[in-house]
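Onboarding guide, step 5: your first structure request.
Type a short instruction followed by the sequence, for example:

Predict the 3D structure of this protein.
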Amino acid sequence: MSPGEASVEPGTDPFIQSLMETDLYSIGAYFCDQHPQLVDEVVERSQAIESRGLESWATETETPIEECFRTLLTGLAVRYYKAVAG
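The system replies with C-alpha cells like these:
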C-alpha cells in the first residue's frame, strides 16, 4: 500500500456503516431476502417508472398510482441496498 492510501475493509468504514442504518437500506435488504426471485423484475419496473414518470407509467399500465409508487420505492431501495452492501 502506498502512502496516503487508506485500508478499508468492507463494512468497517463509519460512513458506509451509517448508510446501512437507513430505512431505505432496510427495505432493500428485507425485499432481497424475502423475494430474491423478484429483485430483477422490481428493479426493471422501478427504472421504467423513473424514466417515464409516475403518472405516465400508471396510466400506460393501468395500475393504481399508489402501487406504482410502492414499486418505484422498492426498486430504489433494492438498488440502494445492493450498492451499499456490494
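Each response can be followed by summary notes, for example: Residues 14-85 form one domain.
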